[in-house]
């Protein structure tokens, strides 16, 4: 299947680790021009050299941006547009992963997951309208099922992201901009969230692993492939979807 993502200008938040890193790598494999961010300055050159070691001569650019700070997001988008003159795809991947029921966690969850996505879309939208581009938000199965993360802001804000993305899909369809959500289930990455839980809370790890009817957790690349497909012309009539990538972890029927 030809995705035809070559030379598309793609922005991914949180690309130095985990699912974001796999999404960046996926777009680089398609020869897209990829811009990613994270908050940790030292992680940017490290991730960039890893990307370049597997995708020689790719256009890849990392920046230190905290998505919970709207002025940083705005400057980042302005910088990219000054250089590229266009934006084709934005992937809002970052979450504060706030799984405690405290005032601080609710504030962080709102500022990072919700405001971080809304401000990213607001800044990029004029350019996405010009390119008839694509928005993908990364939610979670915790947004559709009440799971081990409850009670906390995590699932509540992930559900809000699915609704917000559907609103974008509906209101932007006449302008040719598509918006979709990808909702991963448990995704195992050795230096990621489930790798940490495996080391520090093996009981939780084993109980969650046992809930996966496939007998395994997902791979970051399996989530990235869903994102790439949705942003490609192969998905030209798909907008407002919530694509659950969970190996059938959720047992509820999604209508
Ligand atoms: N892993 C799973 O099993 C799973 C399951 C369902 C949904 N998800 C969703 O998938 C997305 C990615 O999760 P992940 O597991 O890949 O996370 P991760 O391994 O913790 O990676 C998060 C990435 O985002 C960056 N980041 C975090 N906060 C940021 C901020 N405020 N501004 C800019 N960058 C920031 C991190 O770098 P710095 O820390 O250096 O900033 C890192 O590059 C999240 O939306 C998560 O809710 C994950």
TrEMBL record:
InterPro entries, sorted: NAD(P)-bd_dom_sf, SDR_fam
Swiss-Prot/TrEMBL keywords: NADP
Pfam family, one: adh_short_C2
Top-level taxon of the source organism: Eukaryota
GO biological process: abscisic acid biosynthetic process; fatty acid elongation
NADP among keywords: yes
Keyword Chloroplast: no
GO molecular-function term, one example from the UniProt record: oxidoreductase activity, acting on the CH-OH group of donors, NAD or NADP as acceptor
Family: Belongs to the short-chain dehydrogenases/reductases (SDR) family.
Protein name per UniProt: NAD(P)-binding protein
Native species: Hyaloscypha variabilis (strain UAMH 11265 / GT02V1 / F)
């Amino acid at each position: 299947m030809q995705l035809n993502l070559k030379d598309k200008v793609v922005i991914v938040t949180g690309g130095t680790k985990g699912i974001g890193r796999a999404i960046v790598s996926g777009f680089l494999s398609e020869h897209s021009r990829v811009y990613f961010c994270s908050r940790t300055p030292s992680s940017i050159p490290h991730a960039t050299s890893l990307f370049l070691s597997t995708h020689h001569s790719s256009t890849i650019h990392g920046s230190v941006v905290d998505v919970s700070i709207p002025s940083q997001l705005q400057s980042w988008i302005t910088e990219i547009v000054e250089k590229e003159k266009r934006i084709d795809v934005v992937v809002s991947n970052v979450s504060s992963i706030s799984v405690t029921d405290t005032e601080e966690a609710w504030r962080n969850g709102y500022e990072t997951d919700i405001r971080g996505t809304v401000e990213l879309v607001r800044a990029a939208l004029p350019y996405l309208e010009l390119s008839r581009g694509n928005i993908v938000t990364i939610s979670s199965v915790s947004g559709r099922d009440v799971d081990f993360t409850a009670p906390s802001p995590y699932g509540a804000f992930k559900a809000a992201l699915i609704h917000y993305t559907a609103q974008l899909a509906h209101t932007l369809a006449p302008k040719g901009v598509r918006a979709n959500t990808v909702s991963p289930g448990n995704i195992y990455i050795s230096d990621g969230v489930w790798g940490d839980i495996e080391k520090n809370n093996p009981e939780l790890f084993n109980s969650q692993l046992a809930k996966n009817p496939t007998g395994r957790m997902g791979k970051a690349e399996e989530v990235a492939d869903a994102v790439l497909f949705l942003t490609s012309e192969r998905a030209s009539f798909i907008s407002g979807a919530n694509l659950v990538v969970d190996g059938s972890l959720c047992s509820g029927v999604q209508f």
